Amino acid sequence: MERRRFDNGSAPSSICNNRHSNVKDRTMIFKRLVPAAILVAALSIPPSTSAHAEADAESLVDALNAIFGKHDGLRAAHTHGFCVKGSFTPTAEAASLSKAPHFNSKTPVNVIGRFSMGGGAPDASNAQKDNVRGLALHFDIGGGNTTDLVMISAPVFVAKDPDQFLTLLTTVATKDKDKIGAFFKANPNATRQAEWLNARPVPASYATVNYWGVHVFTLTNAEGKKQVIKYKALPVGGEVGLSDDEAKAKDPDFYRPELKERLAKGPAEFTLTAILGEPGDPADDPTAFWPEDQRKSVTLGTISITDFEDDKTCDAGIFDPTNIADGIEGPANDKIFPMRSAAYGVSFARRTK
Ligand code: HEM
């Protein structure tokens, strides 16, 4: 399958060029831009809590591989997962926030999605508590184009910028408890996600947990009015978790049969909402919480997952957070955001070569 994209020219840098045909080229350009010596230097930075690791897409993917191993044909992160399909039906209110086609469609738009476990372990257990679940979506916006939304089951990420993420990964790769402990002590923002996850039960299903887009987006409507938001998808049937004992008794791969059983009875639905930002809400730090319960939100529509899809459909491209339709903009100064696109391109090039 051709990877379809919406090309609105809003990619944050030339490295993150959004054309499908350029995914491999993009990696090539990247390789040309980064002299080998710098790459080697980046890879050989001794893990340290104080070292300032210079991250780039290649070194981040290498660092993920150093922890989780290289697995031919598989993603370097969110490796354990599967592909699904369904639709998205926007509310009338969605158009008041954004002119993006899927928020203005009079009929449901087709969706291809992928549920996954965080990290690069192909056998990451579905019963793991301190790990995020992922929900990545391509919305079909017509003309062979898509707009993407890539979410996790926590409101925050583990690093505020690529350098901090690389230092975290290289420190974890040492398996040295003292170094790892010192890193988290020196970088308390990197502990927020795990604290958040550990305070909640293991989700009983990929379909019974909230997902967040984590980054801050700006929506623009047809009149040119802008609104800063964060995406949150809430399961229509509410959140359902397992007790620690129930989770312990589960098969490590229990989410697939669980979803099969669920879908036999009807679609797995999520309400996609936009949490409305207010002046002063942090916009460029994906480890920073918003006070969600003190913010208004607008319901954008319903994501309806109806069936499994051949994994090849999801593996034929990347779910790229920067692949977004006109009417949606990514954060201007959040360095993680464009780096994701570049790192996913590197992972894609490696898993398809
Ligand atoms: C610089 C920071 C990050 C790096 C280096 C990184 C790295 C990666 C890589 C290499 C992949 C596999 C891509 C592929 O082969 O298709 C991936 C997938 C994914 N990442 Fe990230 N990531 C980062 C930040 C984030 C953040 C902030 C989120 C939060 C929403 C996130 C959520 C996901 C999800 C849900 C997937 C799975 C997509 C799929 O199912 O194909 N990542 N990440």
TrEMBL record:
Keywords: Heme, Iron, Metal-binding, Oxidoreductase, Peroxidase. Has an organic peroxide-dependent peroxidase activity. The active site is at 78. It comes from Hyphomicrobium denitrificans 1NES1. It holds the Pfam family Catalase. One of its GO terms (biological process) is response to hydrogen peroxide. It comes from the Bacteria. This is Catalase-related peroxidase. The lineage of its organism: Bacteria, Pseudomonadati, Pseudomonadota, Alphaproteobacteria, Hyphomicrobiales.
